[in-house]
Specification:
Blueprint: E1 8-12, H1 17-28, E2 34-38, H2 46-56, H3 63-79, H4 90-99
Parallel strand pairs: 1-2
Helix pairs in contact: 3-4
Amino acid sequence: MSNPTRDVVRIAIFGAGPAGFYAAEEWLKQTDRSVEVSSPALCSGSEVMRTLLTHEGVRYVTFTDWQSIDKVEIANGQQVGKPREKLTTISTLLSAIQENS
């Protein structure tokens, strides 16, 4: 029997402003799973969120992870004469993190 809470994707956006919501919206287009978006106003801080995500077994992206993504985007852009080439799928984002960790 499937656990209904494991079929829900939870997204929390901290300090990202409109870009964070845009990223969440784009991610939603790539999945057929239910999604819950948490507002930072409802949370007491990033440490609480990290603890919750870890407890739930959720893979989350850290600033260090983002730096890995940034590095790959810049390198990909240089290959085509652009400042950066954005990664646009969850799988390519996670691969960028894995490559640089």
